[in-house]
Structures are given as C-alpha cells and as structure tokens.
Design brief:
Layout: E1 2-4, E2 9-12, H1 15-25, E3 35-41, E4 44-53, E5 62-69, E6 74-76, H2 78-90, E7 94-100, H3 107-111, E8 115-119, E9 124-128, E10 134-136, H4 142-148, H5 158-164, E11 167-171, E12 175-181
Parallel strand pairs: 1-6, 5-7
Antiparallel strand pairs: 2-3, 3-4, 4-5, 7-12, 8-12, 9-10, 9-11
C-alpha cells in the first residue's frame, strides 16, 4: 500500500508507542531515543523516526536512531517530512546515522541531505551454543565479564573468556556512516 506523507498528520509520539511500532516493523527493533516522531494516516501510525544524542561520535550533536514505515506500507516522502520537522524544531548543528550493510545501502540518508562519512569495520555479536539469540558485544566488554560469567580469568581476553563459557561470535558486514550538517549563513531552509 502506498500512502503519501502530504496526506499524513505528523505528531510527536510517546516512547512506548515508538518502542511497540519499531519492535514490530524495524528489522533491528527499537533503539534508545529521546525524540519520537510519527506520521498518522487516517488515525493509523504509518511511519516513525527517532532521534537521540549521538552515542558513538561525541563531535556530533544528534543521532537519527531509527526510521521505518508500517509493514506493507510505503510512505512516499515520509522520511523527508519527519526529518524536515526535526530540523525545523531542533536546528541541529549535526546529525549522524548508521546504515547496516547487511540489509541496506543508505540511499535514504543521501535523499535527506546526509553525506557519506565512512564505512566502519565489521563488528560482532555473541551467541551461546545451542541458543538462537544474538547478544550485543557491548554487553560483554571485558571489564563487565567478572559479574556476568560463571567462569572468568582476568589474564584471558574477552574472547577467550567468552569461549570458556560456551559463547561463539557472529560477524556483521560493518556499517555505512552518514552525517548531516545544517547549512549555515546561507539563508537556506531544509525541506521546508
């Protein structure tokens, strides 16, 4: 189904609504955010875009954490409408976003005025043998392991300790990193 953003109502939505929507419709699910924007078509939430303070690059003010539309619905112009609203309301100095290379090329960001910054190296997730749940590597940084693992040896690496506890690693393909900066002193307005 195609829905046009110009026929949608834009509203700031609650964290709970964003979490439910993203967990059902975004391949990566919800990610922490402080600003949650939604598009409604005939009172149905059809697209969500979320923002938070930049997690990994402290030189950047904001991070576009998630964008997706309702499964089975293409919201034409939805990302542009939501991002333009964010820029108008917050006047961000800079915004960063990450495109997982396993399933995306990042074309959306270029359409929004972002510039490709760089490609990150592949990262990994932990999986315990016999289980089907991927866990983020950040949870298992070496300084956290003594409290998390039944078997821990401070002389071993993070990876060696994880192996001793029955974990294995799965690697991703890295991410494309995109950055946006609001034009300064040009009189331009973005997407408005």
């Amino acid at each position: 189904t195609r829905v046009f953003a110009r026929k949608c109502k834009l509203a700031e939505i609650s964290s709970q609504d964003a979490i439910l929507f993203l967990n059902k419709n975004h391949i990566q699910g919800w990610s922490s955010a402080s600003i949650n924007l939604g598009l409604f078509h005939e009172s149905v939430l059809v697209a969500v875009m979320t923002f938070g303070k930049s997690r990994f690059d402290k030189k950047v003010e904001w991070e576009l954490a998630r964008y997706c539309s309702l499964m089975g619905v293409s919201v034409v112009g939805g990302a542009s409408k939501l991002f333009a609203y964010f820029v108008k309301k917050r006047s961000p100095k800079s915004v960063v976003s990450y495109s997982d290379k396993r399933w995306n090329t990042g074309g959306l960001y270029e359409n929004l005025g972002f510039v490709h910054s760089h490609t990150s190296r592949p990262s990994y997730f932990y999986i315990r043998r016999g289980y089907h749940i991927l866990e983020n590597r950040i949870k298992y940084q070496k300084h956290k392991l003594q409290k998390l693992l039944p078997i821990f040896d401070a002389t071993l690496t993070e990876w060696e300790n994880m192996q001793a506890n029955g974990y294995d690693r799965i690697w991703d393909c890295g991410t494309e990193v995109f950055k946006f900066q609001l034009p300064r002193n040009t009189g331009q307005t973005f997407g408005l």
